[in-house]
Structure formats: C-alpha cells, structure tokens
Design a protein that fits this description.
Blueprint: H1 2-65, H2 70-74, H3 76-87, H4 103-114, H5 127-167, H6 174-200, H7 204-215, H8 232-267, H9 284-297
Length: 307
Amino acid sequence: MQLRRALGHLLRPTWRRCVAAALLYTATAHLGAGIFYAIEGGEERARAVAFQEQLQQRRELVEAALVNDTTARAALDALVSQLDEYANSKQSAPNPDALNWSFGGSLFFVLTIMTTIGYGTFVPYTLAGEVLVVVFGLVGLAVSGACLTVLADGLDKASIALLVRLLRVDKPGPGRRALLYVGLALAYWLLSGGIFAATQGWDFFTGFYYAFVTFSTIGFGHYTLSYGDGGGGLAMFFLLSLAGLVVFARLVSELADLLAARGSACLAPPAPRQRQSSRAVQPADQGTGEAHARQAAGPGVEQPAAG
C-alpha cells in the first residue's frame, strides 16, 4: 500500500503527460492514414482492376497461341514483359481482393513512418503520395519523437521509484539501471513474440525475431502482420510497437550511459603522486628558542650550534 501511494504521488503529473502524448500520437497517425488513403486508395484500386483485365486478355491470347494463332503468339512478348515487371518489382501486383491502401493499410504504413521501422512491404504509387511521405515524415517523426520522449521519461521515473523502494537506495547506479532494462526488454520481447506467434501462425522464435526487428526499428520487412480492415492485428501492432519502442529507447539509453561511465573510468588519467620535500622542516619551537638566545646574548656573541 505504501509503495502504491509513493508511486502514485510521484507519477501523477507524469501519467497525465503520458496519456496526452499517447493521444497525440494516435491522432497524428490516424490523420496521416486518412490522407494517404484518400491519395493512394483509389489509384491502387484502379491499377488492380486494370491489371486483372490485362491478365484476362493475356489468358485469351495464350489460349489462341496454343491453336497456332500467329497474331496471338506475337502478343506473348507483351505478356512476358508485364510478368517480368511485377516479378522484378519489390511491390507485389495490385489485387482488388487484397488492397494495401485500405484505411487499415494506410494506418499501418503511417505507423512504419512514425516509428522509423520502414518495412517496405508497399509504397505509394503516385507522385503526390511520395511528396506526402516527405512532408508527413518530417511532421510525424517530430510528433513521434516528442511523444516517445514523454513516455520513456514516465517509464524511467516509474522504474527508478521501484528500484529506490526495493533496494532502499537514494539513487541506483548505472549498472543496476541497465540490468533492470535488460530484463524488462527481454521479458517484453518474449511476451510479444508469443503473442505474434499465436496470432499470425508463426513459430515462437519467428515471433520473437519479429518483435526484436520491429521494436529495434530495424524493420527488414520479410515478416509483417496482417493489417486488413479487421482491426485486431493492426490494433495489436499499434499497442505493442508503441510500448516496445519506449522500452527499447530506455534500454539503449541506459546501456549507453553504462558504457560511457565505464569508459570514463578506464580512460581517466591516474592521480599525480605528491612528492615529499627533501628539505628538513625545522621545528617551530627550536627555531624560536635559538632566536631568543641570540637576542639575549647581544650582538657579536656567537651561540654554539645545536648538537
């Protein structure tokens, strides 16, 4: 009970800032998703329909070529070129039954920008979409950086208050702080990996691997969550990635502080040794006694040297 009161009194203003930061982060992401959806959604659907029509035409040409239609055989070159274009592209051919630029897909894309994960699973088709990536990238990264800083500060205050209470120390050192965040990050990666594996049909290590690649913002892109308009997978990605980024940011900061402290201690120059003076220090009382003796004997009287 005392621990709860102490934490609540210390973190009450911080939690308000954290809630405000999370709301701002969410609002910015949804605003960006709406804009991207308005720009790219219609373009992708039009391309998908056109591509399906082209495929149907190519099928008819192939069938005609199989019955020795010379004109149809000549058109096969266009089919091969079309297939090569999509085969060599990093983005899959548009499919009207599985569009990337739905609102859910647009929100997923915006989150990969704001978190700097950048999976690269799909990209804008239009010049306006590419320009928006630059503009929203600047704004979204600024908002994301500010919000994550507030959330990371809240996590740091909570963890320090917990360490102070449990260890009964005034200020935990960098070693204990780093150890705390290593354990916290590892536990969170394992938990998130289990959730990803259970919801996406992956094995546990793949889920753990995806959690690390995502929360560290490496973002290779060969594994991604389903981000359709169903909302479940996208909401899970939003919540887990936001908390994961905060934990990883604190982990990197604490490890950097620990390495800096250890490096400074190793590279610090040794303290200079104090040299003792070779001159003998004459006792004050002896010097004073000899002066009084010479003064009493008068001038010209030489006093014997002290034995």
